[in-house]
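Async update (no meeting this week)

Hi team, since we skipped the sync, here's where things stand on the single-chain job. The sequence we agreed to prioritize is pasted below, unchanged from the tracker. I ran it this morning and attached the output directly underneath so nobody has to dig for it. Comments welcome in thread, and please keep replies under the output.
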Amino acid sequence: MDEDDEARDSAPGSPPGRALTAPVAGATPAEAEPRAGGGPLEALVSGAAYALVGLLGGVVGLLGSYAQGWTAGDVPVASILLIAVVFATVRLSGWGMGGRIGATVPAVVWGIVVFVMSTRRPEGDLVVPATLPGYVYIIGGMLAAVLGVARVPAAGPPGQWLLGRAARSRG
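Output:
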């Protein structure tokens, strides 16, 4: 390759030795350029979003712990409705955050709050008692949280968490 070929193959304003690369078929201009790191602003926004979904899980756990005792006769109606709220909170948080970690954060915070509210204090007080509504709320809420996390699609291809960059396909 001589100098005339190099000048013809290089972009205007770029060094003569740098050849043009053909864009990938179907790629938008934003996808064709290499992506820079998100930077500190993106990290701050992501951290704040995870903190908010964690706070949401804590609020659902706290309010549910106080409301789970409402019944209609012998049926723990409030506990059953609160299980649906836990599932919706976890599932929608995962959908909004775009991955299972976004669903796991409110589920774990909910579980911690409910565990603390169901332990007996030295004075003998507890918020979630060992009654049918309490058991339905705790066990049903745990199952709903696990199911909500499982229903969120994974953010990457299968095995990516294990293999890292090696799992990404070249195509």
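Quick observations from my side:
Residues 60-150 form one domain.
The helical segments are 3-9, 29-32, 39-67, 77-97, 100-117, 132-150, 160-163.
Reply here if anything looks off.
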